[in-house]
Amino acid sequence: MNKHNKTAVLLAALPLMFSSLASAQTQAEKDIDKYREMIADGNPADLWDAKGEALWKKKAGPKNASLEQCDLGLGPGVVKGAYVSLPRYFADANKVMDLEVRLSYCMKTLQGIDVKDQDYNKGDHKNIIALATYVAAASQGMPVNVPQAHPEEKRLYETGKIAFFYRAGPYDFSCATCHNADDKRIRLQGLPNLTKNEPAGRAFTSWPAYRVSNSQLWPMQKRIDDCYRLQRFPAPKFGSEATIALSVYMGVNGKGVKSLAPSIKR
To answer: How far is residue 25's CA from residue 27's CA, in Å, rounded to a whole number?
Structure first.
């Protein structure tokens, strides 16, 4: 068989090859969906929810106080609906805060607990993760409504948009590299288009989430931290403006989508 005939045979076989690949991918996607259905029954995040509720009501710290007077944006002690309306501007702190940062602020001001060790899943931050899960669970099924009334809230949205499309690092990646188009995947894992309403809202309200693969519960700060790691960016500090701005960007884009948190992930 001469060179031209070999090329012709190869070209003729390409449709069959791509058809086989597509079929294999479809079956793999079905297997992943089946796996997700299996793990969805009995979310271990419920344990963090219960712990968070106990921590919310427990008197602790040098001031021997509970967090029941913590204002998460809807008034002191109001938990239901708070998760879906954060991040937001708080006048007492004169800044926009997400849920984890606001809980840290309340622990310091109400209980006298200065969360110095704010690395993920260490020290007092373990309690912040549990508290965030408790607050998130209280808003499950409620629509996202991240406010944009205050100038700082609007500024953080624009900052988040810039951060989302900012390309840098050794791979010249940005958040948008993976999350600005439909039907993108990595290792058959769907990558939501965070510039669109429904996928942005679902992604925004997927955290806190229990990760089956590492038996850990990740809040949003940890999720963003890990995205930066995957891009080979320097690790952001807990509560940095960049992480909160990205949350504002996702939350505003996902307005009206019903909350899923706390969820479960592979």
So the answer is: 5
For 211-228, what is the mean pLDDT?
A: 90
Is the bond preceding residue 151 a cis peptide, omega within 30 degrees? no
208 within 8 A of 217, measured Cβ to Cβ: yes
Active-site amino acid positions: 227
For 70, the token pair is 């913590």
Nearest to 48 by CA among 136, 168, 164, 140: 136
**8 Å CB contact between 217 and 210:** yes
Q: Measured between alpha carbons, how far is 109 from 97 in angstroms, rounded to an integer?
A: 15
**What is the rounded average pLDDT of the residues 123-143?**
94
Helix (H, G, I), strand (E, B) or coil at 156: helix
Q: What is the mean pLDDT of residues 203-217?
A: 91
Query: Is the pTM for the entire model greater than 0.90?
Result: no
For residues 261 and 209, the answer to whether their CB atoms sit within 8 Å is: yes
Nearest partner of 206 among 229, 238, 179, judged by Cα: 179
